User: Fold F-box domain-containing protein from Panicum miliaceum.
Amino acid sequence: MNANPTVILFFKPPTATFPGHRLQCLADQDQDEDRISALPDHILLDILERLDLHTAIQSSTLSRRWAHLPRSLSRLLIHVAHFLPRGRKKVMTAYTVAVRSLLLPSSPTNDRTIKHLELSFYLTESYLQSIGHAVANATESGKTNRLDLIIWTDVGHPEYEQWLLFGERLMSFFQSFPTAFKWLTRLTLRNITFGETDIHNLLSSCNKLELLSLTYCDAVINPITSEDAILTIDAPHSALLALEVITCGYARVDLIQVPNLRRLVCANWIGGNPPLVFGNVPQLDNVALRLSALHWQTPFTLSHCFANTTSLSAVYLNFYNQMIWIEPEGPKHLFPIFSNLREIYLYNIFYDCDLNWTMFVLEAAPSLNDFCLMLSRHPCGRGRSDEDGAKKVNVSWDQAPPDFKHHRLSLLHIIGFAVDEKLVKYIRLVMERAVGLRRICLLDQKPCDKCDAMDDAQSSLSRNRWRFPVEEEKEAIRQQLVDGFSSSVEISIG
Assistant:
């Protein structure tokens, strides 16, 4: 039985083994029949971890036996969203009361240790001191393994001056409780404008931080050049394992020294290409880039972007049904970077784009096992269509030498497959080059409400052109794919 229970908060009533009304029924029984209350604390706490916060707190009113239990939990996940719907001031009032109550020990002699604490809350100034003191009290034992904070700004669409204010407020919050936040392991922020040295100071003071996630964040604009700031991370002693930079206003991300970084997500950058510069990142093995390209963003080579990385094992690129913003290149430049690559995901390639260019990955990644493509074929025109969007153009690629063979690829996975001669030819090309291929998985495009709602003649023709094969056609497609090949490749359709 788990001796370190967790309270997890849910919007919907949980499907728990002992819901609140059953607890009350049990408590109303005669003492001789109340077997649940006779259980030891660690079992009762394990029961409480399966309940929502409201029910867990209600359990303390059942009897004196239950009164101390909610404040004896060693893992607490307290999210502000679960106090909605109310005005944000009322939400934060109720949230702060709950945090202080649940983090206080049940008695002065209680030696409780909170091993995992996760809080999400609004960056509302009048409540930060109370939250900070509660966190400091909860972590003062020095035995906290995980402290995760998700901090939202209390303005839906802030102006630039408000972003600056949020940055100052956040840094003041952290500086007020340095002892507490040295235990911080995960930090998720939104709508923050940082000062020039704020990120460096955060990483230096929070030396246990493993995840930093930034959404709609940026730094102060250079007053002389008026240029967007560069997010520079030079943290040779940092414990940072994962970095997420999503829809941020930085011109670029420079990772100078992040020796433990393993996972990187960069999405919707507004600067030029490439968006990243790597220095010393010897452990980096998982990179995801997602972009609906803007008209000033020109394609770049992956060898330029991923220079100095040699440990990549998984790469995810999402083009959002827009311009292909990478340039195919020969294996000479990519091989040192892709030599350890095991998985690659090329998602939301616009349907009219020729796919032969993707073969450059096979040429440069001799250890590749899984090759996954997702084609985007939306009659609704999903994707960026405004004047800022980059123009979709086909991608050309000089084919590899006829004798090129790939020996490690075992899975080809295509999402968005359709009855299309072009696709059949492409799959046969992969089969010809990947001599060790064992399985091909062909799936329909994921449902789209907008496409399903379109019923005009043009969309009907498009759907007919792009339709997924019906059951009677699947065997014929399999035969068409394997015709002339001696190897037995398992082909699943649907």
Remarks:
- The two ends are 41 Å apart (CA to CA).
- The CA atoms of residues 428 and 483 lie 9 Å apart.
- Residues 1-20, 29-33, 454-462 have pLDDT under 50 and may be disordered.
